[in-house]
Amino acid sequence: MKVLFLCTGNACRSQMAEGFAKQLWPNVEFESAGIEAHGLDERAVKIMAERKVDISNQTSDIVTPEILEQIDLLVTVCGHAEEFCPQVDKLCKRLHWPLQDPAKIIGSEAEILEGFRRIRDEIQAYIVGMGLQKPDHS
Q1: Does residue 92 have an active-site annotation?
Q2: 20 to 30 A from 112, CA-CA: which of 41, 45, 81, 137?
Q3: What's the average pLDDT block by block, 10 residues per block, for the chain (138 residues)?
């Protein structure tokens, strides 16, 4: 099984989802991408490390037709990605998680980090709720 987490810039939400998913289900293939590539957000890396999930080596990538052809499940983590996602195979399942963009939170550094943590925790709850299992091909 191959799962793609898609957001606008592949900087925060989809990166956090990929990190949690890889930790929880190491036998399932996960990727993240964006409609654009904005670079991995340092705050996302910091708050994920608080949960012992290292996303520092993940890269910010743009979704391609080749990636979309290979996936079994597409998870959009923002309205923009859901609206502007290219077409996927009809057999590909789709989920949408309407998550706030933590990069747009305004306030002090402490308030921004608290917002990142709130969204991180929402993502973790969604990931746990997916209940994925690798298909048995035996």
Answers
A1: no
A2: 81
A3: 94 96 93 94 97 96 92 92 78 91 95 97 94 50
